[in-house]
Amino acid sequence: MSSFSESKAKKLAKEAGTEFVQYNARQLCRTYPSGLRTDSSNYNPQDMWNVGCQIVALNFQTAGLEMDLNDGLFRQNGSCGYVLKPDFMRDGSSQFSPERPEDRPGYKPLRLSIQVISAQQLPKVNQKEGSIVDPLVRVEIYGVPQDQAKEETSHINNNGFNPVWNETLNFIVYTPELALVRFVVEDYDKASRNDFIGQFTLPFTCIQPGYRHIHLLSRDGTAIPPSSVFVNISISDLS
Q1: Beta bridge partners of 139
Q2: Single pTM value for the model
């Protein structure tokens, strides 16, 4: 097994993406956070998964987006064991490059439409008496560079109990086999940064079309029942 610092792995991914994918089809590879991250922050693991790195080490003690993505990827196997790479990344003669996903055999982008209908019983983020959240929902896509995208609803004033949006967010996902979808709910603030309320992340390939409740998780990944977002999801071919 070879070990690469995050900066070395990112450089290889950018300058020799196809060759790095081929290398990782026959060789175990571990990546790890830079020693300069004295605050135990994390790099985005998606960059490493895009080129087939098998062991992407993170600072598990630090909650945030990067750990949300890690937990989301491994949610498909019960957070136990390993997740098999897509078949086009397990072939030593693969011509796949995350920078040019359209060059691979079997390339088939998909359209993802998410109608954000409503939310239920969102927690307060400010415990001050009389404080009520002004929620919005954002959907974020993580994957190959072409797939990085985010769209959000408008915010609803003073309603964390049963806000209703009925707004549709649309995406085109070019490499669905590698994409993760992250649902984020925030408390809108006009004067400063929005406050985090909850999130849920899962692989695109695990998404079930139709009416679904997205059960939210706190910043550290624990459940916050009964908070949820009600959505209607459709996935279709790009015609």
Answers
A1: 151, 183
A2: 0.95
